[in-house]
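Kindly review these tokens for lecture notes.

. . .
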Amino acid sequence: MSVVKQSGVAYPFTVVEPLFTPASSAVANEAETFKITPNCDDVREVILVRNGSSDKMVTIYFECNENAPRPTTPAQTIGPATEYVLAVDSALLKKADGSFSLVAIPPTGASLSACSFSIASIGMRQTPLY
């Protein structure tokens, strides 16, 4: 399985602890939810790295919390060994325990067993000091 390493984080991003979450499901067509718990309050952007040896395309989306006007964010299809910048709104996505839920769906007839995700960095909205 390939691992994409973080090379550096530019301001105003906050380095987060390495998160390498392999999918546990080997069942075809079964979606899996990955729990992401950031160590900051107001998250605006997540840089997600899709790792793994699988060459299949995977569909991902975030679950929204009970205050959001819709149940999920728009779905995106992503390939392997690639970095994606995802705009997020913590007011709509953050659950009561402070976590985000990322849902991954494998292509038809495949499983997520050779796929994993890591968070390269999480962007915070900077508060001006007046």
Q: What stands out?
A: Residues 82 and 125 are 25 Å apart (CA to CA). The helical segments are 90-93.
